[in-house]
User: What shape does this take?
Amino acid sequence: QHATLFEQDLCQLIEQMKKFTFLVIYGQIQPDKVESYRLMVQTHFPNTRSVVERTRFCLWL
Assistant: This one.
C-alpha cells in the first residue's frame, strides 16, 4: 500500500514538473519498503538513473 501511494504521488509530481531533471527526497523509508520502491521506479522510469536507500530517494530524468 505504501508503494502504491508513493507511486501515485511521484507520478503526479513528475506530471506537474514537466522540465524537472533531478529529484532528491530525504527522509526515512522502512527497510522492507526499499526494494518495492526501487522496483516501482524501475518499472515506471526505465530510462532513468535512480537511487533508493533508507534515508534518500534520488531520480535523474
In short: The radius of gyration is 11 Å.
